[in-house]
Amino acid sequence: MTTWQPSNAPVPDGEIIIERGSTAKDVGPKVNRSAADIIRFLFLQGEIVTAVQGLSDDMIELYAAEVGATVRLVDPGEQQEAALLAKFFDEDDQDDEIPAVPRPPVVTVMGHVDHGKTLLLDKIRKTNVIAGEAGGITQHIGAYQVKWKGKTLAFLDTPGHEAFTAMRARGAMVTDVVILVVAADDGVMPQTVEAINHAKAANVPLIVAVNKMDKADANPDRILQQISEYGLVPEKWGGDTIVVEISALQGTGIDELLEQVLLVAEIGELVARPTGRAVGSVLEANLEVGRGPVATVMVQKGLLSVGDPVVAGAAFGKVKALINDQGKQIKTAGPSTPVQILGFSEPPFAGDEMRVAHDLAHARSLAEARAQRARLIGHQPVASTSGARLEDLFEQIQRGETATLNVVLKADVQGSLEACTESLRKLERDDVKLVLVHRGVGGITENDVQLAKASNATIIGFNVRPDKRSRELAEAEGVEVPTYEIIYKLIEEIEAAMLGLLSPVFEEVVTGEAEVREVFRVPKIGAIAGCFVRDGVITRGSKVRFLREGTIIWKGSITSLRRFKDDAREVQAGFECGIGLSDYQDLKDGDIIETFEEREIPRTA
Ligand code: GDP
Predict the structure, then answer these.
(1) Residues flanking ligand 1, CB < 6 Å
(2) Is-above-0.90 flag for pTM?
(3) CATH number at residue 133
């Protein structure tokens, strides 16, 4: 430490911008203090850091409070990105001077599971399909438009709250009206309440559709009573909540429902400029074989055209093709039109804003600034976020520490990624925090394993699996890779882990060890390894792994075991034997064959 400022030197006035993960060496000069001063202060608070170690947000804020500085923490690269956005997309933007015209409303259907959201969405969609029309085949792209009595409405066809919340969490406001479906035979349920809260929080008008009116035990009055308790007083009781009784199954009441949606939309005076550079929100995106990155975007203003240079999150490109909800290629898409975009460099994220740039270079530089920022955030080793893997989590909790679960999350499509993220976030408690080290769409790769290893994380896969090489790497590196196909299973298990209630784990117990002395090729049988048993017992049929210089090179089982010319069931330490290798043929002298058993070890809870 070369300079030493007296600790009562004045701190700079006004807001001091500090990047997250800055070191004591970075922060010191900004608040007119030395790195040593910060380190000493933190030491007195019980935190031991070095001058070049990234500090946590808490540490920076604590120190700022100590010296009376006003700091604003920003993500690394945030400032540059904001500057680029202003330069390329706002400052010279004449587009917003184009007069706005009415646009169709965008509707999201929410409600409890099994209350009929999907059926309702299907029914509404079919009102649009002209009987016998060729190309009446619709394609699920995450949203669709219908024409009804000369008016157009757009529907997000991913019912469920996760998507809605995830979008909102990322700042995307795509929904103008929420239809809350409540089954008349079931009533207000937990997810109904959740939906009400979501709509309220987003300040989006809500229409209640009392569904399943065809059922004998339908009790609409009870529903009115129940929703009133949540502040939704029906019109017929003098409130202002619109309630429509429907049967998604029989198709009754749907006309009235759509009429009410349009009425509510009219009150909202929804307008957007129909031309100029388009702006929209990414609804979902994934990587498709043969098509590359495909993103469904809801255009919110302007006109999106084939050939436009676009940017969404860290993805950019020239629009190669636009495909509508009928699966048809179109040339342009205006406000409230959902459309699939082909031509992105990579799949963007649901909730990302999509913008048309002046030219590809602008789109690229903004995308690259964002990618850079994401990298900086993702790879910053920050002091005191020494999170744990799933299997160590409970130990941390038991020690009474605030436990942190580090997760690398991979999922098949953007929508499920967002849904898993949201659901995992909900599991956070005061004593158990979640750190998403990395999230992404696609299979579990060796990179994911490396990252998980480096950051002491567990990889969670949803509808994706590791390929052989990453699985082997994970095994070799001791990285856990639980995979799931059902979201509630995922939630259930992670929650159980947090409570220390995981099902029993199996531990591998090594039972024998043999050293390969020579490998023989025997016609029709394959390779036989001549071995010397160094330890324990080698038993036929037991599981084995082959180690070369301490690294596992293969795992499998023993097919044949011989002692001299005879088959043997087991061979003890100190003897020689021949081990038949089923499909692994590449053993060398000096390799170790290790046999093991799996035994259940009870969890200490
Ligand atoms: P979601 O989970 O809210 O999307 O519910 P679904 O649309 O999958 O519907 C759940 C079940 O309720 C399905 O078996 C539907 O056929 C049934 N269902 C939906 N709407 C109605 C309705 O109006 N009347 C009757 N009787 N059954 C319905």
Answers:
(1) 111, 113-119, 159, 211-212, 214-215, 247-249
(2) no
(3) 3.40.50.300
